[in-house]
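During the no-cost extension, the postdoctoral fellow (Dr. R.K.) reprocessed legacy sequence entries with the updated structure-token encoder. One reprocessed record is reproduced below for audit purposes.
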Amino acid sequence: MWRAVASLMSAQLAVNCRDGQRTLKIRLATILGLLASLMFAATLAQTYKPFPGETVSQRTRNIQERVEVIYVAGDYQRALLIYEKDLAPIGDKYAQYMAGYMHLQGEGTDRDRATALAWFRLAAERDEPLLISVRDELLGRLSPEEISASDDIYLELWKNIGDYVLIMELIREDMDILRAETGTRISGRSSIGSAVVYKSSGETVGPNFYRNVKNRLEARIAYLDTRMEISDDVADEVERIRIQKMKIMEDLAAMDGRNR
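Re-encoded structure tokens follow.
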């Protein structure tokens, strides 16, 4: 990470910088810029917009740590594959940035500024200022033809792994959980009160399980209304998702009415 920290702190061009996501207590600490990296992450953590995605699993953390070692060792093809196929699809903005960075530098792939810009745009969709500056720096250097090509690449990325799309998938999963609620009670759990049987799997969960799912669902719905980068390229897709969101809100209200 030392190249990234040095470039960001000296406000140099986007080709030399990286972001930090995953609550910004990211894997910034294994290379030469340890102290500077931690200071950088702490600064970003004060302003970074929370993303109500899935809790990062230990498996994902292990992948995040391993890919850094792979990248530093110079195994760029393998690192790029992990960034693009394992981490970027779960909304990892660091990985999305790194995919762009590696396309820009020709690390593990051919140099491709149009593809790099597409990944930078995806990484910047949560309005993190440093990532916006990365995106805009490269945008200002591309030809109209490259920008047009990048628009097409970005649209395909956004339709598959953009934040709106990821959040909607999680919202649908939460709705499925709430629809599966049975209300079946199991007595004799004095330490936590009555338990609830989760219908789809038969597992026993605590009495606040569905309430927590509903709160999480509402937070995710609210996140869709926050301003993220929405360009003309994805406007139609955003409108389609918003229509789906309205239907889900109607279904949620109907469930609330039945549970009263």
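The first strand starts at residue 181 and ends at 186. DSSP finds eleven helices and three strands in the chain. The remaining legacy entries will be reprocessed before the final report is submitted.
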